[in-house]
Amino acid sequence: MDRPAVIPKTAHDLRLAPNLVNYDATCRDYSWAEARQAMDGLPGGALNIAHEAVDRHASGPLRDRTALRFVARDAAALDISFAELARLTSRFADALSRLGVGKGDRLFILAGRIPELYVAVLGSLKCGVVVTPLFSAFGPEPIATRVNLGEGKVLVTTDTLYRRKVKAWRERMPSLRHVLLVSDEGSPTSEPGTLDLASLMAEASDQFAAVPTAPDDMSLLHFTSGTTGTPKGAIHVHEAVVTHHATGRFALDLHDGDRYWCTADPGWVTGTSYGIIAPLLHGVTSLVDREEFDAQRWYTLLEQERISVWYTAPTAIRMLMKAGAELVRGHSFPALRFIASVGEPLNPEAVWWGKDVLGLPIHDNWWQTETGGIMIANTPAFDIRPGSMGRPLPGIEAAIVEHLEAEGEAPRVRVIETAGVDGELALRAGWPSMFRGYLNNEARYRKCFAGQWYLTGDLARRDEDGYYWFVGRADDVIKSAGHLIGPFEVESVLMEHPAVAEAGVIGKPDPIMGEMVKAFVSLKGAYSADETLRLDIMAHARKRLGAAVAPKEIAFLATLPRTRSGKIMRRLLKARELGLPEGDTSTLEGSGQ
Ligand code: ATP
Ligand code: MG
Prior knowledge:
The strands form six sheets. Strands 2-1-11-10-12-13-14-15-16 form a nine-stranded mixed sheet. Strands 17, 18, 19, 20, 21 and 22 form a six-stranded antiparallel sheet that branches. A five-stranded parallel sheet has the order 4-3-5-6-7. It starts with 22 loop residues before the first helix and ends in a 15-residue tail after the last helix. It is built from 17 helices and 27 strands. The protein has 593 residues and is α/β, with parallel strands linked by helices. The site of magnesium ion has 3 residues, from loops.
């Protein structure tokens, strides 16, 4: 279906004046030093994320407001106020101190989205301990690899996960001094060599002053999604909190009184930066659903929890689209005001789906584990161009660059000033949440910078009005018969076909064309895979893309391989197609359970 190229901003439901109104003027006048003024800060220029997110509210007018609301299928909802969260995180911090764990030590958390995970993240930050939440579905090996790489001193996990995934591997994690267990049965755990978290917390003080960490002190260690290869450990610092606050304001449009739901798991950077920290900074109530994706449940939560700002991901949106519009009937979302998405390119079809089904378009935004926070976004301040990631946020300078021949190790680039040209997306270094290194991989870190430019590894183009359009990851771009083809463009067109639920496109080596475009698609429930449908999808793609860019082959798959953070793993599609080794699959959804 042909749709307009623009969704005007006046079509947004703006019951509240948005935080960002005049994009150009705000960008022009913006300074991070000024943004820093929104922080409470600690004496001596210190800055601590937990103080900004929790303690400052716990001693102010928001003290009794719900900070975190946990819901689960078989349990009553649990509300934790800002004041209570301050006490709990103090207990956690004090318990760590009593164990001799303190500033700069590393703590890992392996748990589902239980309250203890949130308390452990914020409690660690409060006492200057560097924290890493891991996906609870990781198998023993990826857990051990990460703990060893990060030299984890403490592991917080549950009884069950400990027995299933850690116990047998404990000896292979020599840096681990303490294992703190959350008991699943409600009675203290009795696993040898472990400590019972609840007992430690009961003995600890509920008053603990946040450690005056310097802005440059390490705060979180996050592993990348492993979409393109072995996950890298990105080092973040307390100063990142300034970006989290600013982007919560501009890209998520958080307002006092919002009820906010970020669907990402804290095992991925979105789930901490925006599933824990940013909403707390703004004093808004966050919903945490402990269950896995379920279309019906999600519609019910959006409605019954009166969610006003919703931050989700393309994979979830595609699953909702796949589940069909009938599921939405009978639901209404009068409280919903703003929807945003991150993690993968958001196909124009998905942006429109939001508008058709939920009454609001979806605001795509772009960032990475390395950037620590949202960098490019569709905001309420300008029209949405479906398929575009939006424009750089205030304080962020982006550019499209091309590589020049390097003289030594360091990359050299040139900024492409002309609009409409594909190149690597680069950001001028210096925003507060920028990563400060890859763990144990200084060489790799250095390769990400060309002078003042941080090189993202993503290809994009900028249009004449400054909107950025994702082309593909540098590794995924297909070179076919002299054309450079971005998989996203092809996937978006395939997604327009009524039968297609998901699409992943790769370049398959071809003796004549160099690479040939091959597509893998999964179908919506009502369709079955047969030759007629294949030809129909092929014809649709050829009509929209032309013969040079349209896939030459289309294969049907029940589902596409995805990372746990929801990204299609094209490298796996390719390896399987070519019969090559699959490489690191530690983050593959469905592995290691
Ligand atoms: P790895 O670096 O280990 O291969 P990863 O890059 O997938 O994994 P993340 O940091 O979780 O790890 O993901 C960031 C990447 O996700 C971006 O570099 C980009 O390729 C993709 N991405 C995120 N948001 C968007 C978006 N809105 N549009 C297109 N791509 C996006
Ligand atoms: Mg990456």
